[in-house]
Task: structure prediction
Amino acid sequence: MAKTYCFGLLAAAMMSYAACPQRAGQVTEAQPPLVSQASPSASESSSHYMYSTLENLCNAEDNVVRGGLVIKELVKMGMDYSVQLFEISGNNYRNIIAKIDADNEEHNLAFTAHYDRVDAGCGVVDNGSGVAVLLEMIREIKEKPNNNDLTFIFFDAEERGLWGSRHYVANTDDTFEAVFNIDMAGYGDSLMISGGVHNRRGEFIPTTEYLNNLIIELCNENSIPYILTEDKWTDNVSFNAAGLPAASVVRINSALPYPYPIHNEMDNMSIIDIDALASSKDFMLDILRRY
Ligand SMILES: [Zn+2]
Result:
């Protein structure tokens, strides 16, 4: 089934790719969410915001420009932010950090997403969608009473080997009770939950079990299917490797095994499912409410 299905989608994706706005400013095949003329409902404006953020990220020339877009959105929201610069092999990178302080601190939590992409495709599934979800979370949370110290970290250079999160972990004295990373949020019907990874020395680095259990509980409550797996490397691993509590929310299409539309030309706006994006954002807010 996968191949035929893939081919069908591939053909569709290739057609839309030809028209994809990648660095060309054209309109893609997938239609932006409709917004009622009167006053858009909260969910309409939320989806519209995330979709237009994704379009901008898709059109961004490179990862420096993508980082600049994240900063521009934070500034537009009136958020203070800081930049953590680091250099590897003569190349400069920057993690972008924004904080929302608690009214009465109950918990100290972090939500993270990498904003860099690989060259193939325009990096909207991986991981513009996670970035759009984090920005929308900030947009919604900052307007409401909040009892948690929240740190939002947009990592650079995840695709190069978790460099941004590794640099952050090695250079921070933040003591988060939990870190929730989101990677791939813009399509699919299921979550992939990684129990941990094996490093090159064959050592097993477990994901924080009680955080995975919280994610599984919320999947069951929201009737979201999930698959349990291992050896999926994303930014929670940098924290887990340092013994810090972290887990990831990764959305996939259960009918099409990982790694389908990432790191290839299919990672473009035509694959984005606005309902999946909205569901991912609501899921992350559920985690916050539940924690
Ligand atoms: Zn990713």
